[in-house]
């Protein structure tokens, strides 16, 4: 299978981090930014770096943007540029467009004009940090959909020494323990009789309301 080709538009903190990570994984990455200094900075990390205004349809066409499998629009501040760019990419027939949004409204517009996935890095990271601050046993919180999330919870207090059957998280809270992590080790098919010890981290999936109840109970 041919390696996927990625183009990232906007080399701010988010866009350049995506570009670096994909390059590090060995993918071909085209980095685009209107600011020449920004493209210069990333040029020895990615396959190609080009200075271009992504609201200029001809410029994108000339770069052969429609031949890329995935294009990430990582422009945040200039909402108009982000929307115009997404619209042009859609018109040109890019198969998968991932667009970063600064606000719910911005994200809604991006979705309506054809972004295949809208991401909210600031909002999502804010939520993850908030859950950790509210309850230090929550090490991470990842939103799967508007209703469902995954959380990583450090085993503590009354959980210690119990097994999953005794905890009865599924019946009490309607949530599922998907895995138990201990350091680098990951038990991905935990059994009812698995006993929890200090240092264990539960990876739990569930409805947000139920996860909140669980967080409060074990904070
Ligand atoms: P971050 O939070 O990721 O640092 P941001 O959300 O603040 O970024 P901006 O700084 O607005 O986003 O934009 C990121 C990059 O996008 C900037 O380097 C900017 O030069 C570039 N950019 C903005 N508009 C365009 C455009 N029309 N064409 C190409 N690049 C653009």
From TrEMBL:
Q: What is the lineage of its organism?
A: Bacteria, Bacillati, Bacillota, Bacilli, Bacillales
Q: Which residues form the RCK N-terminal domain?
A: 3-119
Q: What is the name of this protein?
A: Ktr system potassium uptake protein A
* Domain RCK C-terminal stretches: 136-219
PROSITE patterns hit by this protein: RCK_C, RCK_N
Recorded hits in Pfam families, A to Z, give: TrkA_C, TrkA_N
